[in-house]
Design goal:
By secondary structure, the protein is α/β, with parallel strands linked by helices. 63% of the residues lie in helices and 11% in strands. The chain is built from 21 helices and 12 strands. A hairpin with a 5-residue loop joins strand 1 and strand 2.
Length: 597
Amino acid sequence: MEENTQLTEREQRKILFRLLSYTSPHKQLLVLAFIFLLLTTVGDIVLPIIVKIFIDDYLTPGKLAFQPLLILGSTYMAIQIIKAILMFFQFVKFQELALKIIQQLRIDVFSKVQSLGLKYFDKTPAGSIVSRVTNDTEAIKDMFVTVIATFIQGGFLLIGIFIAMFILNIKLGLLCVVILPLLMFVMNLYRKLSSRFYLDMRERLSQLNAKLSESLSGMGIVQVFRQEKRLRAEFGAINDQHYQAGMKNIKIDGLLLRPAIDLVYILGLIIVLSYFGITSLNNVVEIGVVYAFINYLDRFFEPVNQMMMRLSLYQQAIVAGSRVFKLLDEDELAPLQGEEKTISIEQGKIEFKNLSFSYNGKQDVLKSITFTANPGETVALVGHTGSGKSSIINLLMRFYEYERGDIFIDGKSIRDFTKAELRVKMGLVLQDPFLFYGTIKENIRLHQENMSDAQVEEAARFVQAHTFIEKLDDGFDHKVVERGTTFSSGQRQLIAFARTIAANPKILVLDEATANIDTETEEAIQTALSKMRKGRTTIAIAHRLSTIQDADLILVLHQGEIVERGNHQELLAQGGLYHKMFLLQNGSVERLRDVVN
């Protein structure tokens, strides 16, 4: 669960400036949008002056001359029409600007997510990340679409109105300045109170997404173990917290937005009317000036109301921006590689030297691991759950960084190879293979444009996957749904094998790759793997010892340490942990008891 802290004013300003920095590549578009905005604002200021001229110079004296009135009326209508056209272009340009900014921001966030190390994903729910990429960036878009335009237009309009007020009547203009501190107080109070509730709402929404993502991913388990009621209750509890945070914010909106601003407006209206009332006792008051001041007062408070209403969107955007930038600033990156070096993997010799590793920095899961896998050899890792087998593969694949000891390939530290070189020369097949939405052909090729259809089919034939693929209606063009759920576990594994073989790696890494395949298919794959191993180094995790009896070296791990090493016959002869595991898996319970005794 994410920490709920209130953003300070300094933090909010920093986030705002960072969001505004995304406008830098679009300066021309921004300037154009502001020009349209400025022109519409000028129109709003000029219109009351035209009406004031009509009332004081023509209507009150009764001088209804046709030509001057025609000019005034035509000017008024022309300004209205031009203003409407400019407002359209202003709206379009601000929308275009916002979409371009959010497009870039989402690309930045998505790219950042792909550069993060697996350690970050171990501690962060997937739904929370999805919420930042989608919901939070959408809230930021609203700020660029409405908030910035509203605040800048409102600022232009307020300045213009005050200038017009001072031109019409300096004393009354000075009196109206009294309302500015009141407005600033209300706006500042709203900003402080609402930021706390919006942060809470955003985090509750993130938790809702995380809970929904978890439920969808594990829907089979949820239904099998009848967990629907529990998950509904948990989802409902988070949803209720989101509702409570929303209600708190609604109450703040209801108190400090239009009602509070309306009170300040009434105060301003009282000041204007009182001034004209007192002035009329000794001097003649021009009706047009009264109209213009009241009209300007209305026009003054309308943008203020709009700005106050947009403050809620602004607060949401600032909170969303803080969450997005927290992700962008995340330093839990994937391990760095020597990207400027040009060394390549030629032979595939792997050496682990005194390697120790801890996920949490406190408890070691690997302790002084040392072994060598020569080119063309197969090294198998066996041991009970939690013994450290997968951790060795995770470090070899550079999913996690290590600090003690080192891993060498062809005599060079694994850190010195580029990431691209490691990914091209090392092929990984997991126990639970992942298939992408698309076709079987695309899943085997993985969008490598230099791989022909013939190479794809050859790889499938090599692992015996063509047997079931060619029986499908569309063959290699058969559609694969999300995660390949329409295929059996064995079929998904065969496609994953074909994908790895098609890349022709120098090093094979197999994480219990035959666990989900039936015995008949496994025999075919074992035959294919024996061919693949020629000229390749293979590191294989195995739970079924029958699948690695022909390995050149078998390492037996226990609590993060290598406790036994040798080939199959040598380990059986030692009569140690490997011997016990072999007897247990072959059902020789009585013989196992004799060994234990």
